[in-house]
Amino acid sequence: MSEITVANLTKAFGPHKAVDGVSFTVSSGEFVVLLGPSGCGKSTTLRLIAGLEPPSAGSISIHGHDVTRLGPSQRQISMVFQSYAVFPHLDVARNITFGLEVRGVSKAERQQRLARVADIVGLTPYLARKPGQLSGGQRQRVALARAIISERPVCLMDEPLSNLDAKLRHEMRVEIRELQQRLGMTMLYVTHDQIEAMTMADRVILMKDGRIEQDGTPADLYERPRTMFAARFVGLPPMNFIPAPDESGTVGIRAEDLKLTSGAGRLSGSVAGIEYLGADTLVSVEWQGLSLIARVAGASLLKRGETVGLSWDDAAEHHFDIREQRRPVARQFEHV
Ligand code: ATP
Q: Can you give the pTM of this predicted structure?
């Protein structure tokens, strides 16, 4: 069953449409990420679903009920935002249970739920502390605990990890995903970070200029990007693009599919840069004014300026037409 249904959702600020006719569903227990560059409308979409902004057009249903005109508290959802305010003067325990207190849940039940949730997010030893005595990640977990303790099956999160360092982000990614699965929560999660999207999501909705560019699994987006925008946005380094020999569009090849050859390959160019990453190395090769990046295992003995050949399998080619849309049928890339 779909827990969230958004149909033709539109939000205009003056003449500018921040969200422009967006439609999608999120099923029960599914983790869906709204992904896209800054300004693409993903936060506005989430705020509309949360009820923090009224839409200009379109409808929103949650648990099968039309909530388009209801306030946030009537939507039966929990939210975690990047700048989620924890109350500095309340200890961790009260910060977590505050919402239940407001809703008139008895003290005995609050304590029981607190013990369980604090254990889930690993905050049990910190319940008596004030937020100022916590690390950023622990504070973030307070916000998360608040969302979980509400026991609302639908949770909205907007860039909840953006203030954390790389190690903590990684830990929290794993923790949030694990929690979501264990509790069977329906999650809609906004981020501009493709790694968060790829590692956490069951489904990714990629947005551009207020519209949906592609809606699919992480593997769909990586292996079958529908547009050159999607091919550039998902994957690090971004996909390499070469003009199709007959100028009918563009051929895309992932860095791991480009092979360096000592003899003449399909193309030959000169090594312009070498980035050693430990497990592998990114070698950029200049060819006809373009920089093509190949990922090779381990270290590379190549030197800048050296001439190398580049080769790839036909099956690794992604074909896009002049409108930058994926071509359903691949055209052969001839030797050039
Ligand atoms: P970011 O990752 O930077 O938060 P985003 O994809 O979440 O970006 P939104 O915050 O949804 O983008 O904004 C989408 C567009 O709408 C932007 O161009 C933004 O400037 C505009 N916008 C958002 N809120 C308002 C507002 N209250 N008034 C006017 N314009 C707004």
A: 0.89
